[in-house]
């Protein structure tokens, strides 16, 4: 089972109701959009880790995350501090394409506003990061292995993306401008900001 399939199962079983409460979307719509949000984030990571320095920066950041959040996802992703940190991560994954991602998902929702979609993406971001951290640890992946995993998952996500998401996935694959190497993820190696933001996402202080 792919990482995206595992995440989709987690969403379906644990956080659909939570996502609806936090975003104001219906449960059916939250269930539909959350996999799309996670696919968009994986697409952004695929582009960002295509170069060795990007893959190395992400691998260093993921050293702090062991996947423990997946044991109690509903409790973790509903916290306001986790959502705030998720909002910050989005800019580093999607860069200037964040607004387009929100607009595409809003259109797929048939009238959701950007604030609702932004909150949904903020819930999805720590899930994606945590799932990758767990995979890196359990599969003992080095930088190249992690980049390869993300490349495969990004391609899978693009292939399985519904028609509403096709254009966005193509855009992220071609010229996504997020920067996984900047001070947020880079600081995770040194502590400080990275420890407080990324570490806090997954239950580490």
Structure description:
The chain is mainly alpha-helical. 77% of the residues lie in helices and 0% in strands. The chain starts with a helix and ends with a helix.
Task: Sum up the structure in keywords.
globular, single chain, mainly alpha, 11 helices, 205 residues
What percent of the residues sit in helical stretches (DSSP H or I)? over 70%
Oligomer, anyone?
Answer: single chain
The end-to-end distance, rounded to whole angstroms, is 31 Å
What is the mean pLDDT? 76
Q: How does the overall form come out from the CA principal axes?
A: globular
Q: What radius of gyration results from the CA coordinates?
A: 15 Å
Outline the low-pLDDT stretches. 182-205
What's the number of extended β-strand segments?
0
How are the SSEs ordered, and which strands pair?
Layout: H1 3-23, H2 27-48, H3 52-62, H4 73-77, H5 80-94, H6 98-108, H7 114-138, H8 143-160, H9 163-175, H10 183-190, H11 193-201
Helix pairs in contact: 1-2, 1-7, 2-7, 2-8, 2-9, 3-8, 3-10, 5-7, 5-11, 6-7, 10-11
